[in-house]
Amino acid sequence: MSTVAPFVRVLDAPPVLARLYPRAVTSRPDPSADPTRTALEQRGVRVDADRLAAYDRVCGFPLRDDLPPTFPHILGFGAQMALMVTEPFPFRLVGLVHVRQRIEQSRPLRLGEELTVRASAAPVRSHRSGAVVDLVAEVGTGDGEPVWRGVSTYLARGASAPAGAVADDAVDLPMPDAGQPALWRVPADTGRRYAGVSGDVNPIHLSTASARLLGFKRAIAHGMWTAARSLATLDARLPQALTVDVQFAKPLLLGSTVQHVAARDGDGWRTAVRGRGGIPHVVTRVLPG
After folding, report:
1. Minimal CA–CA distance to 275: which of 156, 162, 173, 185?
2. What architecture (CATH level 2) is domain 1-167?
3. DSSP 213
4. Fold category of 171-289 in CATH
5. Are 1-167 and 171-289 in the same CATH fold?
6. 132 contacts 94 by C-beta, under 8 angstroms
7. What's the CA gap between 98 and 95, in Å, rounded?
C-alpha cells in the first residue's frame, strides 16, 4: 500500500447517493487498487436547518443548533460512497457490511458554521471472515479547525487482503451491565424516514420488496440510525468532547420491538439495542474526550 499523502480531489457538489447506488451494482472492483491513493473533499459546506431538524426528529434528539455527534457522518457519507464507486477500489460496494463505527469529536459543530468535509480510506486489513477497510470522514471548520472524525469499518466477506496486510485486531464491545430495559417499537417506515434525511437510499432499508431482492425477508434499519437513536437517549449526559465506538451485530428488521439498555461505565456509558433472547443489534461505548 502507498505511504504517500493521497491526491485530494475537490468536489464541485455533494455526491448524489441515488445516482451512486445504481453505479455500484454494475461497477467492477479492482483487487489491486490502493484505496488510500485518493481523498475527496467538499468545501464551503453548510448544514441546512430543516435537514438538521428532520434528522433530530427521526433519531430522537432535541431540536437545537448543536449538531448531534452522529450527524456529521451523513455529511461525509456521500463522499465515502463516491470514493468506493467512482475511484479504483478493491471491493464492490454492494455486499460490503458496515461492522464498526468510531466517532471522535473535540466539540459539537454548530448550525451556521462553514465546514470542510474530507473522505479517505485506510489500508485494507485481513479479517477472519475476509477483509476489512476503513472509510474515514473528517469534518472541520472552514478556517482549518479539525472538529470531528468518523471511521466506518466495512467487511468484505470472503475477500482476500493484499499480501503483507496487517490483521484486524478489533474485539467485541462488552454489553452494558443489565439495567431496566426500555422497549422500542421500530416502525416499518423508519428506513424511508432516515433515508430522507441522510441520503442513504440503500434498497435494503426502504421496503420489504426491495430488501427481498437483496436477500432479506424485510427491510432492515440503518445501523447509523440505530446508533444515533441509542445515543439520543443519553443526550443531556453526553460530554461535549467524546469518543464513541459502535459495533453493529445482527440486522434489525423494521417493524420489530427491541430492548434498549444503558449503563454507566466509569466516566462513560455503554448502551445496547437487543432483540429476542438478548441478541445484540448494536452495542456502543461512549467515553469523554
Report:
1. 185
2. Roll (3.10)
3. T
4. Thiol Ester Dehydrase; Chain A (3.10.129)
5. yes
6. no
7. 10
Q: Greater confidence, 277 or 34?
A: 34
Q: Which of 147, 136, 79, 138 is nearest to 113 (CA)?
A: 147
Quick one: pLDDT band at residue 85, thresholds 50, 70, 90? very high
Instruction: Reply yes or no on whether the pLDDT at 190 is more than 70.
Output: yes
**Domain boundaries of the chain, sorted by first residue:** 1-167, 171-289
Note the pTM of the prediction, 2 decimals: 0.94
Q: With beta carbons less than 8 A apart as the criterion, state whether 70 and 231 touch.
A: yes
Q: What percent of the chain has pLDDT over 70?
A: 99
Nearest to 149 by CA among 115, 117, 112, 194: 117
Which is nearest to 14 in space by CA: 121, 114, 117? 117
Check whether 34 has a pLDDT greater than 60.
Answer: yes
User: What are the E-state strand segments in the chain?
Assistant: 7-10, 38-45, 97-105, 115-121, 125-127, 130-141, 146-157, 182-185, 242-248, 257-265, 268-274, 280-288
